[in-house]
Design goal:
mainly beta, 247 residues, 4 helices
Length: 247
């Protein structure tokens, strides 16, 4: 599973590509070395509760697709503080429905996290490790299936921008296809044809939905490519295009 990933796509391209209705005013910049606790872009569908919206219907509110900035590391709504997110940046899809930290989000707060590619550490037969960069062959962004939560900061006053924290976690599964050669886990690559059901908060997060997304991710694993890159990615201080150059 990636502990680091890359995102360099222009957010405006995502807006057009994914039919986004609302884009956050402030989004994280492009990065070649995103680490847990960093801000990341997430795509979420949420029921519109803004009565000032043109055409708002309280009896049948629309679902709006939003491009938002989230902290990478899920902070459950009932968490005492945001520090718990430090270790909750990923979640095995096989366990989320049984895990009280992730199950509520799996039911109706599911997200897509775009990535240019991601890094994994591969341990060779001789015991040495190498950094590998996984990406799509055509350079188009990958989509990771994820979860999101809103956490209310009890120490922040009403109206304070820090009052609400949006956070996210990336789902993982056992590696499939060629990816099994370099790591035992992989992010849940989201099949575009399943995006609508995955994001729709009105669609229950059933075992069938999670299973369908996981199975499709295994098929997508056959379509990605990877190559060895510099071990400089190990340090968050390094962040440049040089990190994704083959070695």
């Amino acid at each position: 599973m990636p502990g680091r990933f890359v995102f360099t796509t222009d957010p405006d391209e995502l807006v057009a590509m994914l039919d986004v209705d609302r884009q956050a005013d402030i989004l994280p910049p492009a990065s070649h070395n995103i680490a847990p606790a960093d801000r990341v872009i997430v795509i979420i569908d949420a029921v519109n509760k803004d009565a000032s919206t043109e055409g708002y219907d309280p009896e049948n509110p629309a679902v709006l697709r939003r491009l938002e900035s989230a902290s990478w590391g899920l902070v459950p709504g009932g968490a005492p503080d945001a520090a718990v997110g430090a270790t909750m940046f990923d979640a095995p899809v096989e366990q989320v429905l049984a895990n009280p930290a992730f199950a509520p989000a799996a039911q109706s707060r599911r997200a897509a996290i775009p990535a240019t590619g991601y890094y994994v550490w591969h341990k060779g037969a001789d015991g040495t490790s190498s950094a590998q960069f996984v990406h799509s062959p055509d350079g188009e962004p990958l989509l990771f299936a994820g979860l999101y939560e809103w956490w209310k900061n009890p120490a922040a006053a009403a109206g304070d921008p820090a009052r609400w924290l949006l956070s996210t976690a990336i789902l993982t599964r056992a590696s499939a296809g060629p990816l099994a050669l370099i790591h035992d886990r992989m992010p849940l690559l989201l099949e575009p044809g399943l995006l609508e059901d995955w994001l729709d908060p009105r669609t229950p997060g059933s075992p069938e939905l999670l299973g369908a997304v996981s199975d499709a991710a295994a098929d997508l694993a056959d379509e990605v490519e990877f190559y060895e890159v510099s071990k400089d990615v190990a340090s968050v201080k390094n962040n440049s295009e040089a990190l994704i150059q083959p070695v």
